[in-house]
Design goal:
This protein is of the alpha/beta class. It has 2 domains: 2-206 and 337-362, P-loop containing nucleotide triphosphate hydrolases (Rossmann fold, 3-Layer(aba) Sandwich), CATH 3.40.50; 214-330, Udp-n-acetylmuramoylalanyl-d-glutamate--2,6- Diaminopimelate Ligase, Chain: A, domain 1 (3-Layer(aba) Sandwich). It is 43% helix and 20% strand. It contains 16 helices and 15 strands. The chain has helices spanning 15-28, 53-62, 68-71, 80-85, 93-102, 128-135, 148-163, 184-193, 207-210, 214-221, 246-252, 266-278, 299-308, 319-331, 338-351, 354-362; strands at 2-8, 33-36, 39-40, 43-46, 49-52, 74-75, 109-113, 139-144, 168-176, 199-204, 224-227, 238-241, 257-262, 286-292, 311-314. The strands form 4 sheets. A 6-stranded parallel β-sheet has the order 2-7-1-8-9-10, sandwiched between helices. It has a 5-stranded mixed β-sheet with strand order 11-15-14-13-12, sandwiched between helices. α11 (246-252) crosses α12. It is globular, with a radius of gyration of 23 Å.
Length: 367
């Protein structure tokens, strides 16, 4: 069986996005494909089984038959790290990973997805570099936009993988503005080549791949729908916090922003609605409102929101907590995100060299 270890240079670099595209590419090549998340940090309970959310995502999207316990053998819930350091964890964690890995030998190819940068997991003796070395899998490292930053990050992570005997077979740079910098791919390729690291793909930035839809916002914050607006499938352009005077707030609202504002700030809410109605936001201002603190605006304000046909939801949490929850939505993909998943598959099929990744995996074939 062939296998490859997909790593990243840090959080939110697009590793889950790349995993979706790579698995789709393997399937398009007619290969029987497995997915393994050896160490997971974001655990969800599904049908009574704890598993990393990426394992659950891949199982649903690609209808993978393996049980979640095999796809996600080790997960780190809150308090686990301290318990491990204090000696309260007695399970042989490496053995769990080896057993899960060995159970995939009937597959043509196995995608192994790491967690964060090369050193994440070192605190429990299972850094990405250690796990990849233990499984004998070559690493492909995902970074994101720029020139100096991705090369620096990739080289730094590569050094730790190589220290553990892991071959770094290539890199993928995500979220690149190829329209503004059409020659950047060539520059990155030359820069990485100086360190002996092949560039396997450069992925263009697409808002839908980074930002949630309004429907996803509703699902994520579990709010009361004040008004759905004209299109719940609309993708937000960013997040703005409505915690200042209205005239200052309007200057800080970017195109298609979702504005988080306390429900008792009628002045800010009215200013946003007014700019939407009179066109002073050039028709590209706030896409919607998240009203926080459980403060319900008076009926006149609610009527203005509905008349302006602007999305609004009311939540009991405070502004800071809601902003944190929405940050998670900005960077994660969920099984229900059908449009986003379809675009990910199409984008990576176009911009990523699946055959080169298969070549990488072929060199690390094991029985």
């Amino acid at each position: 069986m062939r296998h490859v270890y997909l790593a990243a240079t840090g959080q939110n670099r697009g590793k889950t996005t790349v995993s979706l595209g790579v698995l789709d590419g393997f399937h398009r090549r007619g290969l029987s494909t497995g997915f393994l998340k050896p160490v997971g940090q974001r655990t969800i309970i599904e049908d009574g089984v704890p598993a990393d959310e990426d394992a659950i995502l891949m199982k649903h999207v690609f209808r993978l038959p393996e049980p979640l316990g095999q796809m996600s053998p080790v997960h780190i819930p809150r308090g686990f790290t301290q318990a491990y350091i204090e000696g309260a964890v007695v399970e042989d964690l490496p053995a769990l990973i080896r057993a899960a890995h060995a159970a995939f030998t009937d597959r043509d190819i196995l995608l192994i997805e790491g967690t964060g940068h090369a050193g994440v997991g070192a605190v429990i003796g299972l850094s990405n570099a250690v796990v990849a070395g233990m499984l004998g899998a070559p690493a492909v490292i995902v970074s994101e936009g720029g020139v100096g930053r991705p090369i620096d990050e990739i080289v730094l992570n590569a050094s730790l993988f190589e220290r553990h005997g892991v071959k770094v077979a290539g890199a993928i740079v995500n979220k690149v503005d190829l329209d503004a910098k059409p020659g950047l791919a060539h520059t990155l390729e030359r820069g990485l080549a100086r360190h002996g690291i092949p560039l396997l793909g450069v992925l263009p930035y697409r808002p839908i791949l980074s930002n949630p839809t309004l429907a996803m916002v509703l699902e994520g914050v579990h709010g009361e729908t004040i008004h759905p607006g004209p299109d719940l499938d609309g993708v937000i352009g960013g997040i703005a916090i409505g915690a200042m005077e209205p005239r200052h707030m309007l200057q800080r609202i970017g195109p298609r922003s979702l504005v988080i504002v306390p429900g008792d700030r009628a002045d800010v809410i009215r200013a946003i609605i007014g700019a939407h109605e009179d066109g002073s936001d050039d028709g590209d201002g706030a896409l919607g409102l998240v009203l926080t603190g459980g403060y319900r605006p008076d009926e006149a304000v609610l009527a203005a929101i509905r008349a302006a046909d602007v999305f609004a939801t009311l939540v009991p949490e405070d502004t800071y907590q809601v902003a944190s929850e929405l940050h998670d939505l900005l960077v994660k993909t969920h099984p229900a995100d059908a449009g986003k998943i379809a675009e990910i598959k199409a984008l990576l099929w176009e911009y990523l060299s699946i055959d080169r990744i298969l070549d990488v995996a072929e060199e690390a074939r094991f029985d």
